[in-house]
What does this fold into?
Amino acid sequence: MGGAEAPLISPPCLAGQQGWRDLRGAQSPVQHGDPPGQKTAPHTCQDCQIFLKNIPAIYGMWLVTLLLLYSLQEVHSEDVGSTRLYFVNASLQRVTYSSSVGVSLPCPAGGTPSAILRWYLATGDDIYDVPHIRHVHANGTLQLYPFSPSAYNSYIHDNDYFCTAENQAGKIRSPNIRIKAVFREPYTVRVADQRSMRSNVAVFKCLIPAAVQEYVSVVSWERDTVSIVPGNRFSLTSFGALYISDVQKEDALSTYRCITKHKYSGETRQSNGARLSVMDPNESSPTILDSFQAGEVHAGQSIELPCTAGGYPSPTVRWLKDGRPLPSDARWTRRLTGLTISDLRQEDSGSYACEVTNSFGSKEVSGQLHVIDPLRVTLSPKNLKTGISSTLFFTCTVEGSPEYTINWYRNTESIVPDQHISIQGQHNDTLQITAAQKFHSGAYQCFASRKGHTAQDFSIILLEDGTPRIVSSFSERVVNPGEPFSLMCGAKGAPPPSITWTLDDEPVVRDSTYKTSQYTLSDGLTVSHVNVSSPLIRDGGVYRCVARNSAGSAEYQARINVRGPPRIRPMRDITAVAGRNTYITCRVIGYPYYSIKWLKDGMQLPDNHRQVVFENGTLRLTDVQKGADEGTYLCSVLIQPQVSINQTVHVTVKVPPLIQPFDIPSTSVGKLMYIACVVSSGDMPIRITWHKDGQLIVPGSASGVAIETKEFMSSLQISKVTLKHNGNYTCIASNAAATVSWERQLIVTVPPRFVVQPNNQDCIYGKAGVLNCSVEGYPPPKVMWKHAKGVGNPQQYHPVPLTGRIQIMSNGSLLIRHVLEDDRGYYLCQASNGVGSDISKSMILTVKIPAMITSHPNTTMARKGQTKDLNCTARGEQPIIIRWERGDTVIDAERNPRYSITINKKGDEVISTLKLNPAERGDSVFFSCHAINSYGEGRGLIQLTVQEPPDPPELEVREVKDRSMNLRWIQRFDGNSIITSYDIEYKNKSDSWDHMYTTRNISPTNNQANIVELHPACVYSIRMYSYNKIGRSLPSKELTISTEEAPPDGPPMEVILTPMTSQSIRVTWRAPKKELQNGLIRGYQIGYRENGPGSNGQYSIVEMKATGDSEVYTLDNLKKFAQYGVVVQAFNRAGTGPSSTEINATTLEDGRRAMERRMDENERRWREECRHNHDIPCPLSQAPSEYEANPEMLFYRITHLTRGKQYHIWSAAVTTAGRGNISSKVTVEPAGKVPGKILSFGGTVTTPWKKEVRLPCSSVGEPAPTIKWTKDSEDSAIPVTADSQRQILSNGTLVLRSVKAEDSGYYTCTATNTLGFDTIIVNLVVQVPPDQPRLTVSTTSTSSITLAWIPGDNGGSSIRGFVLQYSVDNTEEWRDVFISSSERSFRLDNLRCGTWYKVKLAAKNSVGSGRISEIIEAKTHGREPVFNKDQPLLTHINSTHAGLNLQGWTSGGCPITDMMLDFRPKGTWAWQSLKANSTTQLFLSELREATWYELKMKACNSAGCGNQSSQFATTDYDGSTIPPIKSARGEGDDVKKLFSIGSPVILVTLGVALLFIIRKKRKEKRLKRLRDAKSLAEMLISKNNRSIDTPVKGPPQGPRLHIDIPRVQLLIEDKEGIKQIGEDKAAVPVTDTEFSQSVNPQNFCTGVSLHHQALIQNSGPLIDMSDIRPGTNPVSRKSIKSAHSSRNRYSSQWTLSRPSQSQSTASARTLTSDWRTMGSHGITATESDSYSASLSQDTDKGRNSMVSTESASSTYEELARAYEHAKLEEHLQHAKFTITECFISDSSSDQMTTGTNDPADSMTSLSTPSEPGICRFTASPPKPQDYDRGKNVAVPIPHRANKSEFCNLPLYMKTDPFFRKQGELHDPCPAVPPREASIRSLTQRAYHTQGRHKTLDPAKQQVLTLGHSGLASLGASSGTATLPQRTLTMPSSNTAATASTSSTGSNPTNSNKVGGSRDSLLESSSSALGRLQKQSVGAYSKSYTLV
It folds into this structure.
């Protein structure tokens, strides 16, 4: 212990006969004046023997005592008892609230036991209650009530408050809390228009006024009224900006608005609509679009440093910190919007710079970031308990920001340094208290503040009387010389005391004999030891330990006897004070001795009652007296019988002064006063002094006091008493013995009088007022205020209740902190002090009311052009001036005649009316009325909304076709009223608007519409109106639109055949009717065929250009004297019209010889003329030379010609059937140099995405021309450069790899040499899968759910259908339903009642399946059964039977399926079960008589189960009832009953909560996967965004983007029935009426079609015009619906076509099913009227990971996995798919069968449409090993285009033998490329058709093998789709596909000819089927891919 020697304890009974007393324990501590203990007499050894028997008990007692001593250590730093203070929310420092809501604020502080909670202003003023404004509840909650703007008081509503908590421990205060009320202020938010280059970033910012910027935040952005969900290309920053990445052209078509919300009022505002101007990339240096500035952020938070720039090329961004690149840290994320730093740390502080650079320059943005750690304060020590006069140190440790200030508080009062307290340290972080006093106790707080942020900590200090007390000590003992001993003394005190030792009143000095030590334990116990290692006799004696501290001292003493010869140490003389006690110790040493005696004057003491001799030899003299006790005393110690030793000591007695008591009588001002102080006894000399109030009185004129002092008395004289002489007077007398005093109070009484008298006073309502009343007197007068209401004579005064609002000030004045109207009246100030009479004075308080607005409308409406009155009611002191303001402008009615202001007075109110005549649009602002008088001002805010008809919409045309157009509009201003509908009007431009057509009541949620049933090649005028509840807008700007041409609807008229010769017939005809031409007739096709025996019935086609209204054409090279049938068809740019009725004529008989003679004469004449006329070419003398060309080549080079010589060249096609007609002859002359020419043809190339496309551009010329490819942009042509995606081969072919949507556009190839140039244009159209539809629930019933949806973007190919999947909510077993593409709603029938279902939808087009919509949930109507409480459960009971009433069960809307009953005799365990059907009654039989039963019933339906329980008793055998079973209640029955009731309730509650949590977790997990997938989609889409290439000619090409990740934006889908230019070509929309006509005037054509451009994506929701369906006739709609109501919905939205018929008139029939069934007996073929195409591509894991139909969730998981582990982007570029599709239609069957052999493909399954109509078949081809299962699948029939359709094909498709007829010598459709006419300098040339070859992939086509004559010899393909020299190669294996053509006819010789619509392309024999099986091909007869 502190290095001291261990205490030594002697064994008991080893010290001799007297040693036992050493173990009796320590004597009581000796306090001041306490005598030492008496010494006991010696005991015999018999006592020791008794003690030895109890040694174990004694040792146990010692052990317990020691443990107790150490366990009772008091805590030095501890909680002060059970009293404590604490903070509930110390971080609360700012509260902002809405004035219309109010706020309740609990006190952040508290205490235990319950503390008193009070609120104060930061200035220290108490909080008082203001009625209806502010109130402090009893629990310490501060409540500020809602208030009007006129009641605003900054003293209350915008001030700093703090709360205190006080109990016995002290008083603490919270940091200042800023409480601020926010008004509903008028403000507007604005978004500025922006400009950006394509592929750059656009930034929109929401501009919020600075006055409300702190409270208003951006909550969302809208794009064309549709909320923008972050993802894809759109990002929302933390500061509310909208970023659009990879800007595209379509982004300029939308308007962007921000939506803001007021944080406190909840008010939302919408900004204006801003537009984005998108420019083509232009080389420029970077431009900063968004930047950051310096700022401070707390550590641990996140910050976003925006830095975005535009420019071309796109600039790169580089971030620097303190001039160095950013180090690698996962907390720093570079985003499109800038740099995001999460989990900020102090080391992140610094200078940040953002450098943006491109090849044209650079820019830099920099700013300083300060990361501030929140302040954290720790005050130590904590909760200290110490004694008075201690020195205390408090250390305030502050962590966080280095810049702060420290303030100290004690019990919420600021600490001011004084003689006890000092504040030290650099930051004032140390508080020192020296000589602490009792009043220094309390709660100490340290506040650290920095820029409005405050942190604090506190400590509770308790200062108590710290006088030391001895808590452990030593006992008397006897030791032998040389036997070591140790003495211990423990003391406690505050502060901890120090201990000193004395031996016989002499200090113990540490030396070789005495070892002393001292230490203080943690609990404040001070322990001191004295160790004597080798004691001698002199070391014996009385040892005393004295504990001292600043508060006092305590001592303890006990004798230690060392054996040896006794002797007495010399004793010092003693001075005693008379009247007090004195102790005289005999300083004897040595042991043993017999006794100690005291003698005085020879007499043994004691000899009186004041003398006591203790057993240890100490003499006590009580109440010492000078005469009796002064003298010499003798100590005599008996050491042996008759032997004593003596020692003397002299005692001197000193007598202290004794003051004779006196009193001071009360007196009055001005009187004389004499006070005498007399000392009646005491030793001289005596000194007498006077003090007043503790201060020495200095006599003189200043004090007005004179003092006269004599030897033993002193007098104090006051000649004229004043108030300053009031006080306590003390007489102090002192001498050598002591100092004494006597104190009395002098009271000078003064009657009360007014210093300031109350006077009548005015106070302002709501302000503070002071009623002055100051009095003086002594004793200080008590002031009382009284109040009498009213302004007349006061009737009766009542005391003023003193609250926080009303207080009496120290000078007696009355303070009213918040004056109310009720405070007016008479006030009486009354003062009294018991001296004289009371005084009082009255006054009148008048409350002046400031002007305030008491009534006004917050919002009001007005109509434009009408008069509007705005009323404002004010009250207050008159006069009141009311001023009106419009916004921030004062309204001057005199200068603006549109305003007039009238004032009316009604009682004490003033009503002001502002009249607006008329109200205008600009009046839709905030108006304010201001009431002003001499005492204040009030304001009322009125929001006026002027309503008017809306502005006309801004109408634009999105797309124009032959019979329809797509319109889009933007509604700018809605007239401050919701748009209710739109009307569209259109007319022929030449007509007046009286003959217009109207589309009415268009839904206001739409922003586009399709106008159908227009006439081709017509000019229309279009305008539009919008409606709101006010009225109709003005018409929009009138647009003029020309529809495109359509194939003629009528045949040529008046066809006449005239035989001219035996081999020629002249054909004459007139053009079709003008209204049926549908455009300019550009030519005619004449079809002729021989009708004689042996003819094949096929038409030969010739073509001629139109010359006028009447036409003539001569058919040559006919057979002699043969009958020919001739038909004529007109064609225009759009296509070929219907043919005329076939007319027959016969050629003339043979006149061959005459003809030969005529020919010989003509030849001779020709030769003769050619010799004289060099302009006429001479005929060739030799026979023509023939060359055979490769059918795949579209050109041929003839060599070895003679320069300068003319040659005639023609060509003919040769097949196995023979040679075809020759082409037109061309005359050429070889030359040395040839201008550059292009051999390849332009046209439209349509391809699925992600394929490789080759655009050929073969050229000739001498010198060899150079090839250049460009792509048309908006106003320029961009050169195509070679990169990883693009390559230009040496032969000029442009190769595009893995094409995407933005690759669509017009590509121009130019071949140039020194002699000229040539150009072709290729329109590339890339198709993508459709976007996800937006699915919603329309209605529900007990067994059905009706769904509606809006399709997304169709991806450039018409949507062929939808696949709807649904499942029960808690399962993943999805069922598929296939839905027609024309449908926009569907009803799911036969569903379970009362069941939740999950539904999702996906669209399919020719490219593939689109993304699945978001999964929605819907519940069918119905609930579980419930038993009706009004119905009896039991209908009949006897001794053995009970009848149950099952009719009491209500089904809940769902039929009851099961009913179960359980019953048992009461008191038994086994239940008897019974199942019942839902009959009305059920009997329970074989029951026991006179027995109580328990019954449980459960009824179930598809929605769930309901339960009902009951008890019943059977009757006795005689029919009597039995009493209920009684059970003896025990003491715990109530508890058991409560437990039995409470347990199920608790379990059910827990179960419901658990179910809710599980469902919530599932939804959160699903949403998380959605968010993860969307964020992943952003990365993918950023690399696959669309671009816009606007063509120079033709309709605009829209951008398309497809990536198989669900997106939020809705895409526009083309309406079915509008003419499509795509793989699904639609010729003419037809209605049901047209199907039913006996003669169909139209010829419908379906074949390989041109691709239609996709509409702009993300342009808004699709508009489903239910009343204007494409293909319907509004005039005949009524009859259509009545006749074919079940088919109208489907057929009216389909575009159907069929091939030409061999008959002259089309037979009237319903379109039949397009199916072939392959059975065991071959193929049964039915008539086909549709076309089948299938895409053949490889399936890849990358594709599977992109499109999963199991669920959206699995799609996201697979997508994420594929992207992370398999380089998804690379997979996407090489993905291959296998999809087989065809159109079918069946007017007689409602069934549609689909099949698949791939179990993973859940998009196809058996389905049954709800209505008959045209459906779509989608199936995956069967695998080779599963071929047998595919024998009976429905097989589509491919359709081949006829002559009338030929001109609709792309140029490169016309060369396909499948689409051409045998023997055609001329191109029936001479075409001009779209841009050729605009290139003036190009050489005119013709586009010739050549053979086109297709290479198929039989290994991938596992359904049917396509066969026709054009595909007889197919070779292996290269795996890519190319188009050089009109060659198309497909993805395939190395196996060649061979196919043969079969016909429905029986003539085998014609089997190789291309047939009409009746020609079957399927194998029709079992041998053919066998060949199919051998070749491992599927069931489809033809399959190819269009690129």
Remarks:
- The longest helix spans residues 1533-1581.
